[in-house]
């Protein structure tokens, strides 16, 4: 069964800390994505990557950065965590962009910044 | 910009009732359209999709038809069950000119099915 695995299910961090959220996929997918999910706002795209070492800003990249050193791993970095970054973070992957596949999502990381 | 608008929830139905969740979209180009479902405590799962006008996606008794003339992709099910209780997200997918693709989601509609 194909999988997208997020390293933590729940995370509590202090304001100002540097936070790393890790995502690994075992499907050899080219494309990977980070979304945040907030009540009433749905899912909003933070960053995505369509190849190793490539990254593109999504709709709300401010306060975040990403790293993709290997095809299977896509990390989201909060450089200095703030309380307004308390949210559910979802990682997803999809194969070649020329094919019309849906995304496979991880189970999410619920981050609380105190 | 590209966007998806869904009806607000929660939607509360009795078991075996008919379900419609409305979804309309705005997009440049020709998007593919998707419905995702999120059960409590889980990530999103693909429910169904349609890639061009007049296509009908279907899965697990759910259906949605890609209507280009009304820019809509409404989700329907003839007889809902308690196990269908979840949050449903409509989404559109566009291929980006610079490479890659991205999904744009609606805000989600919570469905509660009661006995």
Give the assembly state of these chains.
Answer: heterodimer
Q: Outline of chain A, from the CA principal axes?
A: globular
Helical coverage of chain B, percent range: under 10%
pLDDT average of chain A, as an integer?
Answer: 92
Describe this structure in words.
The complex is a heterodimer of chains A (114) and B (115). Chain A is built from no helices and twelve strands. Chain A is mainly β. Chain A is globular. Chain B has 115 residues and is mainly beta. Helix content of chain B is 0%, strand content 53%. Chain B has strands spanning 3-6, 11-14, 19-21, 23-26, 32-38, 44-50, 56-59, 62-65, 75-77, 86-95, 101-105, 109-114. Chain A binds chain B through residues 4, 31, 33, 35, 40-45, 48-51, 54, 56, 58, 90, 92, 94, 97-98, 100, 102-108, and chain B through 32, 34, 36, 41-46, 49, 51, 89, 93, 95-96, 98-108.
Please summarize what this structure is.
Chain A has 114 residues and is mostly beta strands.
Secondary structure elements and pairings:
The complex is a heterodimer of chains A (114) and B (115).
Chain A: E1 4-6, E2 10-13, E3 19-21, E4 23-25, E5 31-38, E6 42-49, E7 56-57, E8 64-70, E9 73-78, E10 87-94, E11 104-105, E12 109-113
Parallel strand pairs in A: 2-12
Antiparallel strand pairs in A: 1-4, 3-9, 5-6, 5-10, 6-7, 8-9, 10-11, 10-12
Chain B: E1 3-6, E2 11-14, E3 19-21, E4 23-26, E5 32-38, E6 44-50, E7 56-59, E8 62-65, E9 75-77, E10 86-95, E11 101-105, E12 109-114
Keywords for this structure?
heterodimer, A: 114 residues, mainly beta, seven-stranded mixed beta sheet, three-stranded antiparallel beta sheet, 0% helix, globular, B: 115 residues, four-stranded antiparallel beta sheet
């Amino acid at each position: 069964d194909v999988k997208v695995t997020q390293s933590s299910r729940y995370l509590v961090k202090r304001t100002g800390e540097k936070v790393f959220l890790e995502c690994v996929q075992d499907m050899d997918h080219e494309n990977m994505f980070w979304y945040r999910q907030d009540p009433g706002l749905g899912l909003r795209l933070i960053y995505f990557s369509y190849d190793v070492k490539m990254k593109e800003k999504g709709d709300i990249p401010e306060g975040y950065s990403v790293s993709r050193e290997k095809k299977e791993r896509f990390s989201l970095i909060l450089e200095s965590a703030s309380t307004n970054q308390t949210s559910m973070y979802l990682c997803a992957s999809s194969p070649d962009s020329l094919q019309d596949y849906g995304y496979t999502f991880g189970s999410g990381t619920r981050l609380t910044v105190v | 910009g590209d966007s998806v608008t869904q009806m607000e929830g929660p939607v509360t139905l009795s078991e075996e009732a008919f379900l419609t969740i409305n979804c309309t979209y705005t997009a440049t180009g020709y998007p593919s359209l998707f419905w995702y479902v999120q059960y409590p405590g889980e990530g999103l799962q693909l429910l169904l999709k349609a890639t061009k006008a007049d296509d009908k996606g279907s899965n697990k008794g759910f259906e949605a038809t890609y209507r280009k003339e009304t820019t809509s992709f409404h989700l329907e099910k003839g007889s809902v069950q308690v196990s269908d209780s979840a949050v449903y997200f409509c989404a559109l997918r566009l291929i980006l000119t610079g490479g890659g693709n991205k999904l744009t989601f609606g805000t989600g509609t919570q469905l509660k099915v009661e006995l």
